[in-house]
Amino acid sequence: FQEGWNHLMGDNHTKIDKKIGEHLITDAMHDGSIAAKAFCFFLGWGGHDQNYSKALKYLAKSIRSERNVSTFLAIKGHFYMNGFGVKADNKKGIRLIKKAAALDHAWSQNILGCCYQEGVGVEKNVSKAYKLYKLAAMKGYSKAQYNLGELYLSSKGIKNNREEGLRWLIKSAQQDHWKAMERLGWNS
């Protein structure tokens, strides 16, 4: 599951390749991964219809039984923040994502950074957003690298640093993050 996640999300210095990500996650589901089954129900992959309630059920099982608890806490938090299969509850979603971020989960750190940058479910705090983006970017998460680069270039809440901003955008683009590639003019 984790390797598929890395390809899907551009995590752990892995180039984004959604086809490979879907293939690996679907294979993991067929090999018995409860987390992969949850993900397949969430996205309607592997012969399953999209079903948020079933995805949440399998997600709860995976939190109790599999490694990578942080990933599953983060996804569950995402479900609550967006009302996928449950009543939308930003507080509960943020609490779960904070738990995952505290477990050093890059995707969660980036999502939480976005929440702090925009003031979604938490009080707006660009300094916290910056710190969270930086933590996730250092782990090779391409979306966090992009967000950090944009934050450096925008100078909204932190000191403008064009060189650092471009450096992070380049790192993100090298993992095929399309927004970073577009921002740099690397249309492929």
Automatic annotation (TrEMBL):
Q: Which InterPro entries match?
A: Sel1-like (IPR006597), Sel1_AlgK (IPR050767), TPR-like_helical_dom_sf (IPR011990)
Q: SUPFAM superfamilies attached here?
A: HCP-like
UniProt lists the family membership as follows: Belongs to the sel-1 family.
By its UniProt entry, which PANTHER family does this protein fall under? Answer: ERAD-ASSOCIATED E3 UBIQUITIN-PROTEIN LIGASE COMPONENT HRD3, SEL-1-LIKE PROTEIN
Protein name, please?
HCP-like protein
